[in-house]
Amino acid sequence: MFPVVRMRRLRRENLRNLIRETRLWIDDLIVPIFVDENAKKRKEIASMPGYYRIPLDEVSNEVGECMSLGLRAFILFGIPKRKDETGSEAFNDEGVIQRAVRAIKRDYPDAVVITDVCLCEYTDHGHCGIVKNGKILNDETLPILGKIAVSHAKSGADIVAPSGMMDGMVGAIREALDREGFSEVAIMSYSAKYASNFYSPFREAAESGYKFGDRKSYQMDFHNAKEALREVELDIKEGADIVMVKPALAYLDVIKSVKETFNVPVAAYNVSGEYSMVKAAIEKGWLGKEIIYEILTAIKRAGADVVITYHAKEIAEFLK
Ligand code: PBG
Questions:
Q1: Which neighbouring-strand residues pair with 32?
Q2: Is 86 close to ligand 1, i.e. is its CB under 6 Å away?
Q3: Closest alpha carbon to 152 in 195, 122, 125, 126
Q4: Which of 9, 203, 232, 284 has its CA 20 to 30 Å from the CA of residue 277?
Q5: Left if phi > 0, otherwise alpha if psi is -120 to 50, otherwise beta: which for 133?
Q6: Catalytic: 105?
């Protein structure tokens, strides 16, 4: 006790790094990339200042630029030319993501390429599953997710990331991948993905807004934390290699309990709305940009091993 114990002793400038508990590394970060099949040049996303949709033929350059900053892992979202009822462009071997993956792997074989596996950007109704009579069907959606994952794997994806919150999606994808000889392709599941108000800028970015209803019949209720542990447990049993909690900042409690309960790598998605809030406050001069480092560190301190973040490029230089 005081005066014997003085907590301030180790806070001195030259000592504090020695006892630092959490370190954010550039290797912890995954860069999201929106690949737009319709765009001729990069287009800034209005609700995400400083973030762009990238045309297909520039995606490899974008990856190259990130690699030169030291960023090596990417998660790709596609904006396809054509949308239909079943999202068939999502498993077209010549689709926007398949071509993007091949271009990246041709130029940067060492890049870690992760693909988002979902229907919402590819269906005309914008939901993450097949729709019948206004209902989002679960079991009918599973074989399609398997087909998408196989198509991404054929193009060279290292990791597939199902984000549609369909029950059994991880098992269906694992089985489809293994059947086609892709037993080495890993699955990062959006295991505990909440029906969140933080996604709205993404829906502008990826043109994945829905025509009716909402996503509450498949994404989690944000009042629940224990339920996340069940979701994660099931995904691990079905073969998920990495589990994800999404969003991140308002869900640090969930990240922490997932990490403490299971011995698997945990990813956290620092989502579009979290990015937009921070950018808006920085633009107004109400917060300094150091807030970005503090937020990402907090997500890691809560227990995330990897963080998907739109801030990756702007923080990269600082982390070097
Ligand atoms: C698609 C998907 C979404 C996000 C990632 N994958 C949107 C949604 O579920 O509506 C959100 C990412 C973000 O907000 O940054 N299923």
A1: 75
A2: no
A3: 122
A4: 232
A5: left
A6: no
**Domains, the chain, ordered by start:** 23-319 (3.20.20.70)
Strand 48-55 to strand 130-132: parallel, antiparallel, or no bridges (unpaired)?
unpaired
**Which tens digits make up the pLDDT trace of 193-237?**
999 999 999 999 988 889 999 999 999 999 999 999 999 999 999
**From the CA of 201, how far away is ligand 1's center (Å)?**
9
**Bond preceding residue 247 cis, omega within 30 of 0:** yes
234 membership: H or E segment, kind and range: helix 226-238
Q: Where are the beta strands (DSSP E) in the chain?
A: 29-36, 43-45, 48-55, 73-79, 112-117, 130-132, 135-137, 159-162, 186-193, 242-246, 266-270, 306-309
Q: Is 41 noted as a catalytic residue in this protein? A: no
CA separation for the pair 49, 176 (Å, rounded): 38
- Residues 83, 193, 259, 300: which is the catalytic one? 193
Q: What is the pTM of this model?
A: 0.97
Closest residue by Cα to residue 153 from 180, 191, 192, 125: 180
How confident is the model over 267-294, as pLDDT tens digits?
999 999 999 999 999 999 999 999 999 9
Secondary structure (DSSP) of 171-230: HHHHHHHHHTT-TT-EEEEEEEEB--GGGHHHHHHTT---SSS-STTTSBPTT-SHHHHH
